[in-house]
Write a structure and sequence with these properties.
- The protein is α/β, with parallel strands linked by helices.
- It has helices at about 15-30, 45-60, 110-120, 130-135, 150-155, 175-185; strands spanning about 1-5, 30-35, 65, 70-75, 90, 100-105, 145-150, 165-170, 200-205.
- The strands form two sheets. Strands 7-5-6-3-1-2-9 form a seven-stranded mixed beta sheet, with helices on both faces.
- Helix 1 links the parallel strand 1 and strand 2 (about 30-35).
Amino acid sequence: MHLITIASGPYVNWIPSLIENRNNYCNKHGYTWQITSDVLPGVHAAFAKIGAILDAFKAGHEQVFWIDADAAITNFEFNIKGLAQAPFVVSRCRTHPICTGVFIAQDHPVIIDFLERMWAEREVHQRPPWEQGVIIRRWNEIAHHAIILEKRKLNSSSRDWQFGDFIYHAIGTRNPNRKWRQLRRWLQPRGISPASSSSQSSRAPC
């Protein structure tokens, strides 16, 4: 399993905290991880995830665990591999059929073809809801190779997170400062704050 997060724009200052969160989890379960702030000009980070996932498959990773920059791992004992029961695994969302802020994708011909066609059309989809809207509209193309989990199994938020849940995703606001206030419990274990963090990228094995 290879974990990927893109932290660009206002989230680059979170990278040191994100590294600690992702590395601690991956180190426990023997996974590799990658955090970067690099995105192609004109491509929103929300859609840039598609290119990053395809690159990971080309590099030889068989399974990718995508997690948005505004989400934190909150249960380090839980092994995400137990949910990888289909080539594409995603959770429900309170306001949409699915939420692609956290999902698992496998190096499978159907999934690769689906993502490659999305990536080829990236310039057309640079507005909300970005890649999530495309996946929802085209869901029938991968439905037989995908699983939709109940929300809290993969993507809890402020409305429903409970102790023991795997992920806390700061959805419901686009304000980075508000998101940080929700996440700092897990992303600020050593006194790191967005104001004091510096921009960097990490591409490292656990």
